[in-house]
Amino acid sequence: MDFELTEDQRAFADTARQFALAELAPHAAHWDAEGIFPREAIAKAGELGFCGLYAPEAAGGLALPRLDATLVFEEMAAVDPSTTAFITIHNMATWMLGTWAQPEVRDHWGPLLTSGQRLASYCLTEPGAGSDAASLKTRAELVGNEYVINGSKAFISGAGSTDVLVLMARTGDANSGASGISAFAVPADAPGISYGKKEEKMGWNSQPTRQISFDNVRIPANHLLGREGEGFKIAMKGLDGGRINIATCSVGAAQGALQQAQQYMHDRKQFGKPIASFQALQFKLADMATELVAARQMVRLAASKLDAGDPNASTYCAMAKRFATDAGFNVCNEALQLHGGYGYIREYPLERLMRDARVHQILEGTNEIMRVIIARRMLDGDAPDTIR
Question: What are phi and psi of 317, to 5 degrees?
């Protein structure tokens, strides 16, 4: 067991750190305040390969392990969790398309998506199907050599500003459950697609969130990903990686917050000395650092399990997502508290990091659902000896 990063991994992390400092850090607060979706910055990330980190090489991706991808995402999230989170979602959707699309669809969209020239949204959640994703109602009917899609999706990141939608829709009957769901690549400007208002959100303001409606949207039959009925399995495989990605964004946000807190403790003086000299605040910083390191290691363990094809990888991904997103938010909150009133104003990045990190406890499966996934596995007879 080796916890040290390789030279290549350190190089990836360093490149991501330099990119984040040059292209994200100077603008993140402005993008947040004005609700700007920074497509140009995302395209620059694509030039470095960051828009197709683990997508297959056949689709133009780097085909990196998920562990290596976490190193890149963490560095970017330390300064801009919102934009980084969208890039992780784009990576997930691009990997799904690159892995399961028909060759002609993959060859068209793959290079555009992995380069960041075009962007993708992931469309699973519906107004009435959140945690219970298998109950989704959006339908895709095969008519001749086309699928006709009707329904709606909710809380879709990037909606209205992206170019292709990786869509889950029901191809089986109304009672078919998870086995009746299929996956599709849908051009975002296809006739019959309409977008709702841009949601006003607590955080994640550098990426738009909208509802999407599908009214007799027609796509060629070859835009099916995988086979009919495989959509839920594809969605869940995507979400294993997506949960690691969002957990990593929380680790990154917490790292950024910890750095801000450490510097502030040295700079801020009260009662004639730096607040770093007060033991109560030293203990707070120690707990923040401990929680952060634990979260980082759990995320990297889960990524390694996913890379290795471990049969319990989904459980580890759920554990990492639950723990790291809770711990990451708590670290951001404690860092804000250490700043006192200054942490509450926008001149400092703490309130933005905390707002952006909060939603990570909700999306890609709420942390309550993560507990359900973990508990179901842990009730199996062999679990206490296997999950350790």
Answer: -65, -40
23, 291, 364, 368: the catalytic one is 364
For residues 323 and 180, what is the distance between their CA atoms, to the nearest angstrom?
A: 32
Q: Report d(CA 154, CA 149) in Å as an integer.
A: 16
Phi, psi of 49 (to 5 degrees): 90, 5
Q: Are 203 and 197 in contact (CB under 8 A)?
A: no
CA–CA separation, 95 and 153 (whole Å) = 21
For the chain, the average pLDDT equals 97
Which residue, 29, 251, 213, 39, is CA-closest to 137? 213
Q: Which of 104, 117, 12, 93 is nearest to 58 (CA)?
A: 104
Q: Identify whether 126 is a catalytic site residue.
A: no
> Per the structure block, which two tokens stand in for 38?
């920074």
The model's pTM is: 0.96
What backbone torsions phi and psi does residue 348 show, to the nearest 5 degrees? -105, 150
Q: How many CB atoms lie within 10 A of CB 17?
A: 17
Burial of 117 (0-12, 13-18, 19+ CB in 10 A): middle
Distance CA(4)–CA(10), nearest Å, equals 10
How many residues comprise the chain?
Answer: 388
pLDDT digit string, tens, across residues 313-372? 999 999 999 999 999 999 999 999 999 999 999 999 999 999 999 999 999 999 999 999
